Amino acid sequence: MSEPTGPVTYSRRWSFRRHKPIEPMSAQQAAARDAAGEFYTVALRDPSGAAAPDAVIEIAWGNNHVGVWFFDEYGRQPLRYSFRRSNDHLFLHGITQWDYPDESAATLSGATRVDKFQFGEDGVAQRLNSNDATRETTKEDRSGVNVSTHWESFPRFGEWASLARWKRGTSVS
After folding, report:
1. Using CA atoms, how far apart are residues 72 and 102, in angstroms rounded to an integer?
2. CA-based nearest residue to 84, from 75, 74, 76, 94
3. C-alpha dihedral over 104, 105, 111, 112, to 10 degrees?
4. Residue 81: inside a domain, yes or no?
5. Can you give the residue range of the structural domain that contains 35?
6. How many CB atoms lie within 10 A of CB 27?
């Protein structure tokens, strides 16, 4: 997967099924929502014209939350980062990864394995793995996890590149 580039689309919400903005808005309208702490989305599209954007960022400053969804070449969501605002920074507290059985277009419900990671600022972490093929769910708790790379500078409006980094220095295995 490449890092997101290209045009930016703002909207009240994003339709993950149709890969389209719901109630599109101008950058000025989105900036006003940003300043007011209201929910809005940012879609970063690859200039190749792919059906799905490279990433969709869900901004909810009023809830101290940012969610970043990434897409593969088939329009599926294989990765989501969840950030929580902590003072003047963001902390990556959740990572969800979906694995799909083949290369056909599918939705999140087509995933055969889901890994969810939750991180605390104190280095306490939890991994929850659901595997449809084996019909098993496992849970693992850890302490002493190095979360120093989970911190992100709080972005000013329009500075989306750092949030939309697919590859991060996080340790999740």
Report:
1. 12
2. 94
3. -10
4. no
5. 1-71
6. 14
Cβ neighbors of 37 (< 8 A, separation 6 or more) are: 60, 61, 62
Tokens matching residue 24: 């599109």
Report the distance separating Cα 12 and Cα 127, nearest Å. 31
Please state, as a whole number, how many other Cβ atoms lie within 10 Å of the Cβ of residue 95: 20
pTM: 0.86
Q: How far apart are the first and last CA of the chain?
A: 20
Does residue 28 share a domain with residue 91?
Answer: no
Structure tokens at 69: 């969804």
DSSP helix/strand/coil, 47: coil
Averages of pLDDT over runs of 10 residues in the chain (173 residues) are 66 89 95 96 77 89 95 86 94 93 63 90 94 87 93 92 82 51
One domain for residues 110 and 142: yes
Asked if residue 164 is part of any domain, the answer here is no
Is residue 109 within 8 A of residue 98, CB to CB? The reply is no
11/41 Cα distance (integer angstroms) = 5
Domain count within the chain: 2
Alpha-carbon distance 41 to 25, whole Å? 10
Distance, in Å, from the CA atom of 127 to the CA atom of 62, rounded to the nearest integer, reads 28
In the block, tokens 């750092």 appear at 162
- Take residue 155 and report the two structure tokens written for it: 């972005």
